[in-house]
Amino acid sequence: MSALHYTLDARTATEHFPGIGRYVFHLARALDTLLDEGEQMAVLYAPATPSWRQALCPRPWRRATCVPVESSPFGVAQQWRLPRLLSTLGSHVYHSPYYLMPYFPGRPTVLTVYDLIPMRYPAAVSRKARLLFRFALDMALRVANVVICISEHTKHDLLHVFAHAASKAHTIPLAADHHFRPLLPEACRAAAERMGLPPRYLLYVGSNKPHKNLTRLVRAWALLSPKDVVLAIAGVWVPAHSAPRTLAAQLGLTEHHVRFVGPVPEALLPGLYGGALGFVFPSLYEGFGLPVLEAMACGTAVACSRIGSLQEVAGDAALYFNPLDADEMAAALEHLVTDDALRAALRARGLERAARFTWDHTARRTLAIYRELAAV
Question: What's the number of CA atoms in the CB half-sphere (13 Å) around residue 11?
Fold first, then answer.
């Protein structure tokens, strides 16, 4: 039998798609280690755009080959250029990690779906973006032979709206990268100092989009606000969603109470997680909740929202609270800050829980889907 050719579309492994880029980068790397002698993989990438975290291509590959593609996921030209490229490559299976994709790829197709935020939180995007999302996602779902959802929660949301995809949907969770692990105290202190943080801080990592619920986190912290602990809010800051910073100023919370530290270099994240008293994640909606898993993998006690996807990820290894109740959130944070025994128990359970999620497992299940489709 001739070699099987798979194509992974990694054009979204860019800073414009931080979450999807992380997924594609780690999936590509893990898949390459698993391919048999009779299998090859083409990794499509955008040569003009800096890729996520480091250059996706070039890198040392076993059986994968990087293929530059000028057509953007946002451009119409991909509708004819990518099918021609897939034919030239002799691809047996095409995997798109994004719903803006060629809708007539001409071969068995895998689609990955992360969340339905434009539909669940329509105020977060424009009306045009909501309509485009629903139409384009429906098209992608109809084209795909298999749909990978990153959590059962996402799968449930997807099938509630797009019931026609029920027979195609599979759940394959994400994982934390291997560099998220417990570090020595000196490394943790160095990371905190680099980000201008004191020895005792509670950490949030993520964006400031409205569904991340940071205004309620700030309000809860104002109810608690211990003098010797700073709430560090880290991550990409979108100026259009400045309400959390405005509220902190209105409540009289200075940098001795709350610090908005901005984006954190990837190399510093494990140390920043590891040096925190605890990690808090108050989100109202997540497709998965990777920061929770990263924090647990670093040996950090976690308090997070009592919502479906986060409970899937954290299991019994987190302290949960109602994300709509600032008083309950404040009480949970107080326990996290003051109860040494609780933090130790959460750290131990978190490390055990995080070890169940690996990119090797994610890649093996994904590769099994490729092989099944290629054999049809």
Answer: 23
